[in-house]
Each structure stands twice: as C-alpha cells, then as structure tokens.
Amino acid sequence: MLGKILLTIAVIFIAFLFVRQRDMKEKSISSQTSQPTGSPPIAASSADNSLSADLRLGAYMFLVLITGLGLALYYFQWQDDHSILTVRLHSDSQSEAIEYQVYKYQLQDRSFTTLDGILVTVASSERMEVEGLQ
Fold this sequence. Notes:
Helix content is 52%, strand content 22%. The chain has helices at residues 2-32, 43-81; strands at 84-90, 98-107, 111-114, 119-121, 127-131. The chain has a five-stranded antiparallel sheet with strand order 4-3-2-1-5, with no helix packed on it. By secondary structure, it is α+β, with helices and mostly antiparallel strands.
C-alpha cells in the first residue's frame, strides 16, 4: 500500500514539474515577442491569461480533491484493518472454546496472528468462529 502512495506522489510531482516547465517556457517566449511600446494592448491576451489562471486554479482544486479523497480512503481502510476481532476455536477434544484477539488484517483462511504475536494455525478438526466481522 505504501508503494502505491509513493507512486502516486511521484506522478503528481512529475506532472507538477512538467506544468511548471511549460509555464516557464511560455513566459520566456512571450517576453521575447513583446509588443513595441506605442502599440495598443491586445484584449485577447488578457482573456487568455484569465482563462489560463482559471484552468490552473481548477487543476489545483482537482488535485487537492483527489489527494484528499485518496488519503481519506487510505485512512478508513487502515482503520478497518486494525479493528480487533475475537476468534474462538472449538476442538473436539476440549469442552471449552479457546478465545484469541486478532487484528482483522492478520486473519487468514486457516491461520491468524494474535495481538500477542502468536501464530495460530487451525487444524482441519477444529472449528473457527469469528466475532466482529461485518
């Protein structure tokens, strides 16, 4: 999961550098082809600048929205994975069930790791009951 986050951040950073470089190139071109002093200003140039500023603002707002959504979804997934479940193992040879506390992300099909770090493998003759799954 951390790799996905780092990859996303790298792509965002590269896109930011690309847009920044393009803007710097456009500014250098526009400064080289500036109008002579005495000619009237062109109205289309100011309209292009305001459109460019609006698009830039929209792009930044979209970037913040997507990043915020990604972080929120990551947090909720992490929170769900770290919920504590109660696992009861019923065996034919024992009258009482054995209870364990387990994080949800550490629960597998036939094995789990407890909060204490004990790896438990469930035998085929045992029945596993999980309390707290939704």
